[in-house]
Design goal:
Rossmann fold; 6-stranded parallel beta sheet; alpha/beta; 16% strand; 7-stranded mixed beta sheet; homodimer
């Protein structure tokens, strides 16, 4: 058996079922070997950013990694941004990156580059070039163990062509992950004391595994029993929410709003989450969002056993008998009237099917989504974990492959959608049940906000033109049709309602282009901190959301 | 003046006129500063691969760098593949990569990554994070000097947000490049002796600056005088060719063909070119294409003065009075009959306007292009220097901005075109005179060839599906329309002829989708070496081309 065949068998034996691929010549033996392993599905992407983003979305929903198959350093480069998102979300992804044959590397041929350096940033815990066929599967098993974690992340195995085509490959079992430690008694007691002493001035900040159903129930019990608040990190990897599940308030993207959420806290307890910081720096503003004097505790870090740690805290606080605070079922009315991004979010809230998966990269247009879907049937929310735009469509495609029985909604801004739009082709090819909703406000609307926030004075015509993507106007319906995905353009609320209802009841991919005005146009973000005292001058739905403690 | 304003003035003072941009929050002060410098044009791209590829194409034609403006490590990542192409072509590109404010970096916010590591691969000679506003312009001037060379290449200046917005920026002059050495007398004499002793078994292999008009004339004189052959590297950065210019035969992409071209040589003289190696490795094949026993000489390396070195060799060989062998004007007939990729190439040869720029990434479909355009009016040919596909459309956009008075043709395979298709939007926005010709053969046709060449046995259904991009079929006319570019689909030779003639006489961007069968389908590439003796069983046009010494 050659290296490629043994490698695919090693992956399949470890339960890896999907490979998102964009191969080239150096991967041809791997491609040929696909037919030797019926347990491995190969999903072709037209661009590597689609393959890596799909692997991320798949792993978030399948709770296990997919492989990617990428063509040398340049193929990996094209997939880096979505691998960055996976890394920041601690999502397991196994990259198989083809390389030149070992004897060819010294010739510095056209596609030669230092692949290990390209991989290092997104794959800090495992980058290895497998130099011998006999050792390939051992390397692969080690890569898999590293990427599955805890904490989980991106591992990169570089596969020279001759190691792939060489005979003598031997499949290897993947060793189980080492047991993860739970919080020790001292740490748990310290946190329990803080909760007992000043519950209402304490918050639990939940990330990653803490945002899954079972864990949420226990954490909600602790919060109810002690008076503590529950926050979710600003960009959760995967968050289970909706009617019947504990409600958790997300930290806002805008540091000005996040500071309001966190003000007055004396203790902040991290549960598989990172201490909150501002997304960007702004002149004269703090980057650290933890209020001065607030003590930060870590109940469970990314490499630790979250479930066991939460259980210990439940016991230590005596909250076992408490009842979690569950979100009541509640949907907004079907929207009417002037068509805006908020109406899109409202229609989604009204129509969202049971167990849907929402991948939200709607940027400014999605600001009301958390509010309008809070009481919708239970669903999973995936978000842009690393801030590298262009994740929504690929990630949704991967999620749909992991969960073929669930409806996936991909929400994207127009600017973001143009990054990895090729994902639509994979959706059409694989007949994935994804409804892509593109908010076409014809601008990098968030940058109009940011231009104000950073205090960049004197934005003239040239500067403004850099944020304006409406000339020429993008036609997402034609773009989708060009890749085999049926699309609908909605310019009124009623058109959108109809299009969404149709897409949700029809299997296969659909795209809806929602032509909406930018959401935050009328708002003076620079003066937001001054407004937050009264909320009076904020847009009404945003002010309502803030009052309800559900902050965009 | 703040850092951003001083930086833009420093660039403009050094003659930099264009910035290809895809900015984010951390670049907002740079964006705001654009309006303070009327000499700087900002060209927005919807994806960073477009910005970097356009900067490459611009520099090839303008003979000076453009700047790019990219958003942190992920923005740079998205532009890496085309920067790889620029690096391999030794094309000057100055990346300005925004970063978080210096005081924000330690918080590891969502978009934080090690930008210097991301840049290292494509930008080995200059990567620097400018940490103080007062030093920014000195760093920028140094980056520019490095990137302009010789040899020229990619330089990356990382610009933290606070260094950009901080006051105290002072524009700096860009020092002139250090003088480049020419080949010394001993080297010139050694090469002249080889040419005198066995001219007919000697070849000059020309790359980069050696493929420009003035240099070509002198090199052709040397070849005519000594009997040596002239070869161009397989993927030239920029090659001037056509009627009235010396004809130079390109080394073939297929190592099997290149070996035929180079066989029998006793001396190979490199003129700003790299010694030829196989693009990929193949089981049991040599990677080094230099025939055994052939001696390789370097007349001028990338960091040296090519013009002076060639002049010295002209003098040493006594070829000053020789006449260069100039290509006679000759166009193919307008094609008729069954529509194939070869007919597209023939129609281009028939219709190519004077001083056109051809960016060729047609892969297998472009195999006959060199033959059919050899005697067309003089034109510039740009090619895929680093093998990272997705360069044609961005590079063509950049070339059109550098040469607004010339027609640009971008030739791309369907697979390649889908990598950075967003370039069409920039073409529409800037009203660029680019005719994009997409060869839609609905497959990664070159990989069908490569699958045979690497001897990957047992290509089953799954393997073949990885090379098939026809399900669903891509509709490039709709894709172009979605980005504001008018398009035409050609399914017959006559339709293509009409569409090309129309596009060439109409200003602004056009796309022509040529629906053609894969070019090399019927050909058994595995047995190619056995066929080369007789040429009888090769496709007729290919055999003709080989006989004429014009090898694809």
């Amino acid at each position: 058996m050659n290296g490629a065949q043994a490698l695919i068998k090693t992956l399949a034996d470890a339960g890896i079922e999907v490979c998102f691929s964009n191969p080239g010549t150096s991967e041809m033996h791997f491609v040929a070997a696909l037919d030797t392993e019926p347990r491995m599905r190969a999903v072709l992407a037209l661009f590597e950013g689609v393959a890596t983003g799909a692997a991320d979305g798949y792993a978030r929903m399948a709770d296990k990694p997919a492989a990617t198959l990428l063509h040398l350093g340049c193929g990996l480069s094209n997939g880096l941004a979505n691998l960055h998102n996976a890394r920041k979300g601690k999502v397991p992804v196994l990259n198989i990156v083809g390389d030149h044959a070992t004897h060819h590397m010294r010739y510095d041929a056209q596609l030669q580059s230092d692949i290990e350096t390209v991989a290092r940033n997104v794959s800090p815990d495992f980058v290895r070039t497998s130099m011998r066929t006999a050792e390939l599967c051992r390397d692969a098993a080690e890569a898999l163990t590293t990427c599955m974690g805890p904490p989980g992340g991106v591992a990169t195995l570089i596969l020279p062509a001759d190691v792939s085509w060489g005979e003598g490959g031997t499949p290897q079992p993947c060793p189980p992950p080492p047991p993860a430690p739970a919080a020790d008694a001292a740490r748990v007691q310290e946190i329990a004391r803080a909760l007992a002493a000043c519950g209402k001035k304490t918050a639990l900040l939940l990330g990653r595994r803490a945002l899954r159903d079972g864990m949420l129930q226990n954490l909600s019990c602790i919060a109810q029993h002690t008076g503590a608040r529950l926050f979710a990190e600003v960009f959760p990897t995967r968050m289970e929410r909706g009617a019947g599940l504990p409600h958790v308030e997300r930290i806002a993207y805008l540091a000005e709003l996040a500071s309001v959420q966190l003000s007055g806290l004396e203790h902040l307890i991290l549960v598989d989450a990172k201490s909150p910081v501002s997304f960007f720096a702004y002149p004269g503003k703090d980057s650290d969002l933890v209020p001065r004097g607030c003590q930060v505790h870590t109940l469970a870090a990314a490499h630790e056993d979250v479930a066991a740690s939460v259980q210990r805290l439940l016991d230590a606080t005596g909250a076992q008998a408490a009842q979690p605070l569950l979100q009541a079922p509640r949907r907004p009315e079907l929207p009417r009237g002037k068509f805006t991004a908020d109406k899109v979010c409202k229609a989604i809230g009204h129509l969202l099917p049971e167990r849907a998966i929402i991948m939200d990269e709607a940027q400014t247009s999605g600001i009301m989504l958390p509010l309008f879907t809070a009481g919708a049937p239970r669903h999973d929310l995936l978000t842009l974990t690393g801030g590298a735009i262009g994740q929504a469509l690929p990630c949704a495609a991967g999620a749909a492959i992991a969960c073929p029985d669930r409806k996936v909604l991909a929400l994207s801004g127009d600017g973001s959608a143009m990054y990895n739009l090729q994902a639509l082709w994979t959706m059409a090819r694989e007949k994935l049940d994804v409804v892509s909703i593109i908010f076409n406000n014809r601008s990098y609307a968030i940058l109009n906000v940011e231009l104000q926030r950073v205090g960049a004075a004197g934005a003239g015509e040239k500067a403004r033109s850099q944020l304006d993507i409406g000339v020429p106007a993008l036609d997402f319906v034609q773009l989708a049709a060009g890749m085999g995905v049926p699309g609908t353009r909605a310019t009124t609320t009623e058109e959108f309602n109809r299009a969404l209802a149709h897409a949700l009841r029809t299997p296969g991919p659909h795209l809806i282009e929602a032509v909406v005005p930018p959401t935050l146009t009328g708002m003076k973000l620079r003066v937001l901190p001054h407004l937050l005292g009264s909320l009076k001058r904020l847009p009404k739905p945003l002010a309502q959301a803030l009052k309800r403690g559900i902050v965009p």
